[in-house]
């Protein structure tokens, strides 16, 4: 199916006029769709609103085109990045490709949209260069690369594309006649830089012995059939022309293609008798599996012993496609002896540890251009990335040797042992994490035995920030509190349910509360994924846990700040309510709140028990709600039947714009949040919580909202950013993204017309930004 680029509309963004490029595919259905767009766009420019059936047609077309555009994506990841590079280079003439060159190196890449936006590869800034696309060359006096490269035999093609060292060695090895003659070959030709990077002793060995070794080496770079980049499928193997030993292809989703871990830097250079792909290193024949490679390397003695003890030898001998991060002897020596002895003596922990070093798929170092989570055989993920020339694991540059390839995988050597959570004790889980303060306190409280042994417990570990402004003195009360942070059983947060009670080592039963966006145990909400250790689990919680010590009424009586409130509760006849079983949320006014009332108003209120009761009931919610469960637009129904509007800013909770001065005072029948201002109903306004919020809780500068329309513009702007990210995740090429975004924007404009006056196609236009500069990065 033929596809072409045409300009179909000019989009006016405020004072900026930009041409929007559509991808038009020769298909009756798509041409019909474009014909729908044109009159509608024209009507918009003339001031006529697009409504009803026409709006529906446009919306359905936008959705349908998204699916169709996805279907017309390039056949392979490499073709996708090549197509994107062609689009980026089109302004420089025909057949020009834009490439990103890492500053300070000679590495160049075709890239996708996301990398183009970031202008970084392996964390390093890139410079955009423009070169002829594969198969084309410049013509003096003409723009771009209008001429196709001459179609000659492979030997001459090597000279045309600049692989002159390979051409020279082909002649020296008596390969010239073969690659000039009839046939259909694929030649993975090392670049000049690849030959120069070989150690002198290896190169000398290749060109000695009457050049037999050199001929064998070059034959290993050849396949006796023509294979374009489209034919180089991920995980494929092809017999080479040297003893039919296989070469191994990897074709990654980011467009990188490798042969025996050598990256293809120039592809699809056609010749009369085959095709040439230039690679960035000289490749060598592979005959051993990864287990044999480990067995024969003295630097991996400890690893070899561990693999045998864990029963993984057969796995590493069998067919597969693995990536092994192999810890050297030095890496094992860095581990504390007691930890290493424990793991080596525990078959399950040892197997988990080793499987944590093995990825399920083969990843050559050249395939890594940014940090990417990759699944291990142990079941969790490692983030494999790069920092300049360094390969990183979980952000650390610990790879000392790369790309030792076997028949069933690749080995990267590392100088640091990776220990998964599933091989750690609770104490090891806590150390070096975001709960180090809690870890030290548990040690000081004499609870270490529970955290290093094989006891099946669950540790509730508060974040370090939870201890700010709190005394860390190891008092009897602190020891008691810390014992109540260790549950007697091993739990998974995924199995907890609302109303469940969990018994602690201190004998206290803690309640579980499930909210829409939070899972909380008493006042503390779980702040991260579970840490599942060898024998026990750890929940990271957002604050120090405080078990309930009585009813709401008991709690208020025990706190001098609520002495006035206690008297008012008794006068209003609500004592029994706050003592009985329930799940109340009480926004409790402190003495300061009542002192701030005009004396006459307070006196009048005290003379009317019914009005007093209604005031207090407006402060009492029917549902239990801790601060960790409050998000924007959270609503609580008070006992009066109205609505309390809750929100958060930084770490402070607000109720009807009144700040909560202390949250989460836990009781057996509810929770108390202290407020220093009497909570009153919000005035009725035609706006939402944030656009209306101009009370004492939101001062000038907290949010850049000056009027209702501004808040809606901000909401629309954020929604458009979300749509951009969504389209990126669809992994469409940039041209398809441009089309889908443009069509969607027209529909979105009509939908938003009633919200923002003079809202023209992209939301960014309201900010005076160019469509291209903001959305396409050009």
Automatic annotation (TrEMBL):
* Domain called EMI: residue spans: 93-147
The record, for SMART domains, names:
FAS1 (SM00554)
Q: Where in the cell is it found?
A: Secreted, Extracellular space, Extracellular matrix
Which residues belong to the signal peptide in this entry?
none
Q: Where are the transmembrane segments?
A: 20-37, 58-78, 713-731, 743-769
Pfam families to which the protein is assigned, alphabetical = Fasciclin
Q: Which UniProt keywords apply?
A: Cell adhesion, Disulfide bond, Extracellular matrix, Gamma-carboxyglutamic acid, Membrane, Phosphoprotein, Repeat, Secreted, Signal, Transmembrane, Transmembrane helix
Q: Name one GO cellular component term.
A: extracellular matrix
Q: Which GO terms describe its biological process?
A: cell adhesion; extracellular matrix organization
Coarse class of the protein's main subcellular location:
secreted
Q: Which GO terms describe its molecular function?
A: cell adhesion molecule binding
Q: Where is the FAS1 domain?
A: 148-283, 287-418, 422-545, 549-679
Instruction: Work out whether the entry's keyword set contains Secreted.
Output: yes
Role description: Plays a role in cell adhesion. May play a role in cell-collagen interactions.
- Self-association and partners: Binds to type I, II, and IV collagens.
Write the protein's name.
Transforming growth factor-beta-induced protein ig-h3
């Amino acid at each position: 199916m033929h596809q072409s680029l045409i300009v179909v509309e000019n989009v006016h963004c405020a004072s900026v006029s930009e041409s929007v490029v559509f991808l038009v595919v020769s298909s009756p259905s798509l041409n019909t769709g474009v014909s729908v767009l044109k009159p509608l766009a024209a009507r918009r420019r003339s001031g006529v609103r697009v409504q009803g059936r026409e709006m529906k047609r446009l919306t359905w077309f936008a959705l349908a085109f998204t699916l169709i555009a996805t279907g017309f994506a390039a056949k392979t990841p490499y073709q996708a990045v090549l197509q994107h590079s062609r689009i980026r280079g089109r302004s420089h003439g025909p057949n020009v490709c834009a490439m990103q060159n890492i500053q300070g190196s000679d590495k160049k890449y075709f890239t996708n949209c996301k990398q183009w936006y970031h202008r970084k590869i392996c964390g390093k800034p890139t410079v955009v260069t423009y070169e002829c696309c594969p198969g084309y060359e410049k013509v003096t006096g003409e723009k771009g690369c209008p001429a196709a490269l001459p179609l000659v035999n492979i030997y001459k093609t090597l000279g045309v594309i600049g692989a002159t060292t390979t051409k020279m060695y082909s002649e020296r090895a008596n390969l010239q006649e073969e690659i000039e003659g009839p046939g259909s070959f694929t030649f993975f030709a090392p670049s000049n830089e690849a030959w120069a990077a070989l150690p002198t002793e290896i190169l000398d060995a290749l060109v000695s012995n009457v050049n037999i070794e050199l001929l064998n080496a070059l034959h290993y770079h050849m396949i006796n059939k023509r294979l374009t980049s489209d034919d180089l499928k991920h995980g494929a193997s092809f017999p080479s022309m040297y003893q039919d030993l296989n070469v191994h292809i990897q074709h990654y989703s980011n467009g990188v293609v490798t042969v025996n871990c050598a990256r293809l830097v120039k592809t699809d250079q056609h010749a009369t008798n085959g095709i040439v792909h230039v690679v960035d290193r000289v490749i060598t024949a592979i005959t051993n599996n990864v287990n044999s490679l480990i067995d024969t390397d003295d630097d991996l003695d400890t690893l070899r012993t561990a693999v045998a003890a864990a029963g993984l030898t057969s796995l590493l001998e069998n067919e597969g496609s693995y990536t092994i991060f192999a810890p050297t002897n030095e890496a094992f020596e860095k581990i504390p002896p007691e930890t290493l002895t424990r793991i080596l003596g525990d078959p399950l922990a040892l197997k988990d540890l080793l499987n944590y070093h093995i990825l399920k798929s083969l990843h050559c170092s050249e395939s890594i251009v940014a940090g990417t989570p990759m699944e291990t055989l142990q079941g969790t993920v490692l983030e494999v990335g790069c920092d300049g020339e360094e390969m990183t694991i979980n952000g650390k540059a610990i790879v000392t040797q790369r790309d030792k390839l076997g028949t069933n995988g690749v080995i990267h050597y590392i100088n640091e042992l990776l220990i998964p959570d599933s091989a750690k004790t609770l104490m090891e889980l806590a150390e070096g994490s975001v709960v180090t303060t809690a870890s030290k306190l548990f040690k000081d409280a004499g609870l270490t035995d529970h955290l290093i042994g094989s006891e099946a417990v669950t540790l509730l570990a508060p974040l370090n920030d939870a201890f700010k402004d709190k005394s860390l003195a190891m008092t009897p009360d602190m020891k008691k509190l810390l014992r109540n942070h260790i549950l007697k059983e091993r739990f998974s947060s995924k199995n907890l349910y609302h109303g469940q009670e969990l018994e602690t080592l201190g004998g206290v039963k803690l309640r579980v509360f499930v909210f829409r966006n939070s899972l909380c145990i008493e006042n503390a909400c779980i702040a991260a994924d579970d840490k599942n250790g060898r024998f026990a689990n750890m929940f990271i919680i957002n604050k120090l846990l405080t078990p309930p010590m009585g009813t709401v009424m008991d709690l208020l009586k025990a706190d001098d700040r609520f002495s006035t409130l206690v008297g008012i509760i008794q006068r209003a006849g609500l004592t029994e309510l706050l003592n009985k079983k329930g799940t109340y949320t009480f926004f409790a006014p402190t003495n300061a709140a009542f002192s701030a009332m005009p004396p006459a108003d307070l006196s009048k209120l005290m003379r009317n028990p019914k009005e007093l009761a209604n005031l207090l009931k407006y402060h009492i919610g029917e549902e239990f709600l801790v601060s960790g469960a409050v998000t924007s637009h959270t609503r609580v129904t008070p006992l009066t039947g109205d609505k309390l509007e809750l929100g958060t800013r930084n770490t402070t909770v607000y109720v009807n714009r009144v700040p909560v001065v202390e949250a989460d005072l836990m009781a057996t029948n509810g929770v108390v949040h202290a407020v220093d201002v009497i909570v009153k109903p919000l005035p009725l306004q035609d706006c939402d919580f944030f656009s209306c919020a101009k009370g004492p809780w939101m001062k000038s500068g907290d949010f850049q909202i000056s009027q209702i329309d501004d808040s809606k513009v901000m909401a629309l702007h954020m929604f458009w950013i979300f749509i951009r990210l969504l389209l990126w995740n669809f992994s469409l090429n940039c041209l398809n993204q441009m089309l889908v975004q443009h069509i969607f924007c027209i529909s979105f404009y009509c939908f938003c017309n009633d919200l923002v006056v003079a809202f023209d196609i992209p939301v960014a236009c309201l900010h005076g930004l160019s469509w291209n500069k903001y959305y396409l990065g050009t």
